[in-house]
């Protein structure tokens, strides 16, 4: 017992620097932000007044937040669905041995190692110079308010589907091959095997991937900022950009911080709910 206590103490000692750093850059700013959310601070002035729940009331009555909310939900659910479905299908398709399979995996995963800025520049060129020629339009997807979010979703899916493929491919490697052999002997087809064996036994991968992309999508900032800076107009502005604009260009840090806390609470609620949903459906084998 004494030796176990000593080992735990040593382990905790090694964690202290990481815990201190995490507290300094995450926990302390978070609680500091909670205080600012109930003020009218402009982000610069050394003084500010407490305004109670006024910022919260303004947020829920602000019609300018409707479009960012719609854009955020569209991006989050679209990328979560497309990245996971395409990643799973690619993993299943590449879960066989044929000549060049490893090279093909590399090509699919390669966009993940490209910086987001470079990926956005590549697709901005495709949308502005190649897309209009192919489809005989005056502007690309990013230049049209009605299609700009679709264009950003395509960039995100192209860049991130390789990571989802790798995760699902790793999950497929843990499924015993004899299960598929037994199912084939019993007369089960490919679709039935996929539905009755692959999907249930891949639930741990779903538990990781779907909340990950859903949470990332709900706080999406970088794709819209790099590709369009929220334009045309505000047609690609997300809630994270909405928070950023009030924190910095508009100098309404109190209101921006309240928006950030509401967004954080919503993301936490959704991701916990989805994680619990999939975790309950995990099976042991």
TrEMBL record:
This is Raffinose/stachyose/melibiose transport system permease protein. It comes from Paenibacillus algorifonticola. The chain crosses the membrane at residues 12-31, 73-94, 106-127, 147-172, 193-214, 258-278. Its main location: membrane. It is a multi-pass membrane protein. Belongs to the binding-protein-dependent transport system permease family. The keyword Transport applies. Residues 69-274 form the ABC transmembrane type-1 domain. It comes from the Bacteria. InterPro entries: ABC_transporter_permease (IPR051393), MetI-like (IPR000515), MetI-like_sf (IPR035906). PANTHER family: ABC TRANSPORTER PERMEASE PROTEIN (PTHR30193), INNER MEMBRANE ABC TRANSPORTER PERMEASE PROTEIN YCJO (PTHR30193:SF37). It is found in: Cell membrane. One of its GO terms (cellular component) is plasma membrane. One of its GO terms (biological process) is transmembrane transport. Keywords: Cell membrane, Membrane, Transmembrane, Transmembrane helix, Transport. SUPFAM superfamilies: MetI-like (SSF161098).
């Amino acid at each position: 017992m004494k030796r176990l206590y000593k080992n735990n103490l040593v382990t905790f000692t090694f964690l202290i620097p990481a815990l201190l750093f995490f507290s300094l850059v995450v926990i302390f700013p978070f609680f500091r932000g909670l205080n600012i959310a109930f003020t009218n601070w402009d982000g610069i002035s050394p003084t500010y007044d407490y305004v109670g729940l006024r910022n919260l009331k303004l947020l829920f009555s602000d019609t300018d937040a409707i479009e960012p909310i719609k854009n955020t939900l569209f991006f989050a659910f679209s990328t979560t669905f497309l990245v996971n479905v395409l990643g799973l299908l690619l993993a299943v398709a590449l879960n066989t041995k044929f000549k060049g399979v490893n090279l093909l995996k590399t090509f699919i995963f390669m966009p993940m190692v490209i910086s987001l800025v470079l990926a956005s520049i590549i697709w901005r060129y495709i949308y502005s110079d190649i897309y209009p020629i192919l489809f005989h339009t005056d502007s690309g997807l990013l230049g049209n308010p009605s299609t700009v979010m679709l264009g950003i979703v395509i960039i995100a899916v192209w860049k991130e589907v390789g990571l989802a493929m790798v995760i699902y491919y790793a999950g497929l490697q843990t499924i015993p091959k004899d299960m598929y052999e037994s199912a084939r002997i019993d007369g089960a087809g490919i679709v039935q095997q996929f539905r009755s064996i692959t999907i249930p036994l891949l639930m741990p991968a779903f538990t990781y991937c779907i909340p990950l992309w859903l949470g990332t999508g709900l706080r999406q900032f970088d794709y819209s900022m790099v590709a369009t800076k929220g334009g045309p107009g505000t047609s690609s502005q997300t809630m994270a950009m909405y928070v950023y604009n009030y924190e910095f260009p508009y100098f309404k840090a109190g209101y921006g911080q309240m928006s950030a806390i509401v967004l954080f609470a919503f993301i936490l609620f959704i991701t916990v709910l989805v994680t619990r949903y999939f975790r309950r459906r995990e099976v042991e084998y």
